[in-house]
Amino acid sequence: MEIRNLSGARLICVGDDWQSIYGFAGSDISLFSNFGKYVGKYEQLLIEQTYRNSQPLIDITSKFIQKNKRQISKFPKSKKEPLEAPVKFVQYNDGEIADAFINEIGLLVSKYGNKSILVLGRHGFDIHDLIALTPKSRVKYFESTGKLEVKGFEEIDINYLTVHRSKGTEADNVIVLKLSNHLLGFPNKMTDDPLLSLLLSDNEEYRFAEERRLFYVALTRTKNEVVLLTPSEASLFVEELLKDNNYLLTTTDGAVNATGCPYCKTGKLVIRQHTANGSQFLGCSHYPSCNQTFKNVEILADSILCPGCESGFMVKRSGRFGDFLGCTNYPGCTNTIKLK
């Protein structure tokens, strides 16, 4: 403010409040939320075009980060080819993390070829659960360089970083480790130093606000997919993403499927509620990019895609000749299936 008054200079500040993750070092999020307080009159310009992530991932992560209403509202857009499932949730049992990790490495290589893989942890020690310090270990970690060497995939560029250190980096695909619901899980539930909060001008009240931003950073390092490895006691953030997006959860025992949106082909149908009358309906997880809705919530229990229009679902109806299945797009689609 004083520099501007003395020199008449124009000041341009660039930053992203969604990635403000260094509060423990004194970084103050209020520099974004109360910018005018520090510089006076200003104009805010949003950079909303992104080139790293596909739109389906952007939709998921944007909704996640903006649950904290103090984050600046933005609507990032991408011109990349959309991926059907940019986030994959993989749950493993105790002692199975190495098996799950190596299996996901193999799946990524088979899908994308020998592309780079970045492995992320909330803490530096999260990697210890993955590596076994024995001569027969299938995963070797070189701490000085961050390099991971996986047996059978030695030619793949695989590196480990903490999420804090990963800010500003990217990789073709990302795997996030140890997404557990523990004190030192993700989010880390240890309270901040009370002395530090005295130094900050605006102490945040939103629960795990900075941890949420940190998780957002982890989700958005990938050019393609991000795989979330979670133990049986899943992270609060993982549970939230699963609930909000009705996503696919893969386990060592099989898979729980979610119903895909037949319009955008990349979103999942989730139950929403009308604010006016409280009635439930199905909406696409990629709203507002996709605003398709269905009033038949029972679709989730038995989703039969209409073979006629391929954009509606077959639901049970009754007529003068008895019960039948009709398309949710009626009268636009008159396809029916007789019930015996």
Automatic annotation (TrEMBL):
GO MF annotation, one: ATP binding
UniProt keyword Nucleotide-binding present: yes
Stored InterPro entries: DNA_helicase_UvrD-like_C (IPR014017), DNA_helicase_UvrD/REP (IPR000212), P-loop_NTPase (IPR027417), Topo_IA_Znf (IPR013498)
Gene3D superfamilies tied to this protein: Bacterial Topoisomerase I, domain 1, P-loop containing nucleotide triphosphate hydrolases
SUPFAM superfamilies tied to this protein: P-loop containing nucleoside triphosphate hydrolases (SSF52540), Zinc beta-ribbon (SSF57783)
Residue ranges of domain UvrD-like helicase C-terminal in the record: 157-228
Domain DNA topoisomerase type IA zn finger: 261-294, 305-340
Entry keyword annotation includes Cell inner membrane: no
Keywords attached to this entry: ATP-binding, Helicase, Hydrolase, Nucleotide-binding
GO cellular component labels: chromosome; cytosol
One Gene Ontology biological process: DNA topological change
One family name in Pfam for this protein: Zn_ribbon_Top1
Official protein name in the record: DNA helicase-4
Organism of origin: Parapedobacter indicus
